[in-house]
From TrEMBL:
<feature type="transmembrane region" description="Helical">
    <location>
        <begin position="230"/>
        <end position="252"/>
    </location>
</feature>
<feature type="transmembrane region" description="Helical">
    <location>
        <begin position="259"/>
        <end position="277"/>
    </location>
</feature>
<feature type="transmembrane region" description="Helical">
    <location>
        <begin position="207"/>
        <end position="224"/>
    </location>
</feature>
<keyword id="KW-1133">Transmembrane helix</keyword>
<feature type="transmembrane region" description="Helical">
    <location>
        <begin position="339"/>
        <end position="356"/>
    </location>
</feature>
<feature type="transmembrane region" description="Helical">
    <location>
        <begin position="283"/>
        <end position="303"/>
    </location>
</feature>
<protein>
    <submittedName>
        <fullName>YgcG family protein</fullName>
    </submittedName>
</protein>
<keyword id="KW-0472">Membrane</keyword>
<dbReference type="InterPro" id="IPR007621">
    <property type="entry name" value="TPM_dom"/>
</dbReference>
<feature type="compositionally biased region" description="Low complexity">
    <location>
        <begin position="362"/>
        <end position="383"/>
    </location>
</feature>
<keyword id="KW-0732">Signal</keyword>
<dbReference type="Pfam" id="PF04536">
    <property type="entry name" value="TPM_phosphatase"/>
</dbReference>
<keyword id="KW-0812">Transmembrane</keyword>
<feature type="domain" description="TPM">
    <location>
        <begin position="39"/>
        <end position="161"/>
    </location>
</feature>
<feature type="signal peptide">
    <location>
        <begin position="1"/>
        <end position="26"/>
    </location>
</feature>
<feature type="compositionally biased region" description="Gly residues">
    <location>
        <begin position="384"/>
        <end position="399"/>
    </location>
</feature>
<feature type="region of interest" description="Disordered">
    <location>
        <begin position="362"/>
        <end position="399"/>
    </location>
</feature>
Length: 399
């Protein structure tokens, strides 16, 4: 029982790290939101149908030409310089392909009555400063002066789409996942399968080592490129990570099937994103985070129950330590009731370590330390194309 609880603790703590990845990878900026959509309206000016139509239009443009165009509406610049602010957001968003920098950002500061079109290096010959200025002066600001924000933005997007479609951009690369990312993903999957087979005693260590060597060489060839020596190190480490993770989870079947369910959910969200724009932060980070939190509290309950059953005096000592941690956290955080509320998850997390049975730890050490998890975030939500390089090209205006 104690060993299974310890294995469950390690598995769920591993899931905590894995569930934080989507949030860690989502581009954020000074505006305090994830830059993971083609159209972001923080002013609630555009209606739902207009937003969906613009997103689809920009998604189709990206599929045809590879260029990434984004629209952002904010209430105010907060006193910042329009050009510097837009350029900062453009770089944080990393719009455009990495080696092409074919991104465009249309920024509208509604309360400041200012607008700017920021153009990446790769499109400065197609969307010149003069053309960007004409779009603003002839189509955007006249509509904005009449209160027709949706019409002005739609006309600007139409103009930019026409210019980008007629531009001489590099051919669009295969939109599928890069070979290197495919190699790493396959390594993790094959490692997971091997870990389960080893844990189930269906695969011997010698056969596993031979398979690791063959898979490493094969996937390194698949990755190819000038960075192939890196994959000689990355692939076996990923195999080991997948094997150790799922080999340990196999010993706790409930956690194992729970993780499989989570992966199925992630795949469903990614597939859905091919048909409609999906916010990965909203549909992945929050649900996974909630599941992890619930799982941790369930584990804490089981640990507390086992501690009381094993030694009531030990339970009381641990409970006193946790209460002391909670009191110290509440006093240090301050801010009245809010500080004591924030202290609850802090004390709960530390309670996991307090209630883990100490006498199990010295006997057996599973080498289930999971290093970094290589996850390919091929978000088609136009969060980032790896570009974002702009020399200030574009135009500004006001109405």
């Amino acid at each position: 029982m104690m060993r299974r609880l310890r294995q469950s603790a390690l598995s769920l703590l591993l899931l905590v790290c894995a569930s934080l990845l989507p949030t860690a990878h989502a581009q954020t900026s000074a505006i305090g939101v994830a830059l993971d959509q083609r159209v972001i309206d923080l002013t609630h000016t555009l209606d739902a149908s207009t937003t969906v139509r613009l997103k689809q239009q920009l998604a189709d443009l990206e599929q045809r030409k590879g260029a990434q165009v984004a629209v952002l509406l904010i209430p105010t610049l907060g006193g910042a310089d329009l050009e510097d602010y837009t350029n900062q957001l453009f770089r944080a968003w990393k719009l455009g392909r990495k080696d092409v920098n074919d991104g465009i950002l249309l920024l509208v500061a509604k309360d400041d009555r200012k607008v700017r079109i920021e153009v990446g290096y790769g499109l400065e010959g197609t969307v010149t400063d003069l053309l960007a200025h004409r779009i603003i002066e002839e189509h955007i600001t006249p509509a904005f002066r009449q209160g027709d924000y949706a019409g002005g933005i739609q006309q600007a997007v139409d103009d930019l789409t026409t210019l980008v479609d007629g531009g001489d951009l590099p051919a669009l690369e295969n939109p599928l996942v890069a070979p290197g990312a495919i190699a790493v993903l396959l390594a993790f999957i094959l490692g997971a399968i091997g870990g389960v087979l080893i844990a189930a005693r269906k695969l011997g260590w010698r056969a596993a080592l031979v398979a690791t060597l063959v898979i490493t060489l094969g996937l390194t060839i698949v990755a190819g490129g000038h960075e192939w020596p890196v994959y000689l190190l990355v692939v076996p480490l990923t195999l080991l990570t997948g094997g150790a993770t799922f080999g340990a989870l196999w010993l706790v079947r409930t956690a194992f099937y729970g993780v499989l369910g989570l992966f199925a959910y992630i795949v469903a969200v990614v597939v859905a994103n091919r048909f409609v724009d999906v916010s990965y932060v909203r549909w992945l980070a929050w649900p996974l985070g909630a599941l992890v939190v619930l799982g941790l509290y369930l584990l804490l309950f089981l640990l507390i129950k086992a501690s009381w059953k094993n030694s009531p005096s030990g339970f009381l000592l641990r409970a006193f330590v946790v209460a002391a941690i909670y009191g110290a956290a509440g006093l240090l955080l301050g801010h009245g009731a809010q500080g004591w509320l924030i202290a609850v998850p802090i004390a709960s997390f530390l309670a996991l370590f307090v209630f883990i049975p100490t006498r199990v730890g010295a006997g057996s050490s599973d080498g289930s330390s999971s290093d970094s998890s290589h996850s390919d975030s091929s978000s088609s939500s136009s969060s980032s194309g790896g570009g974002g390089s702009s020399g200030g090209g574009g135009a500004s205006g006001s109405w």
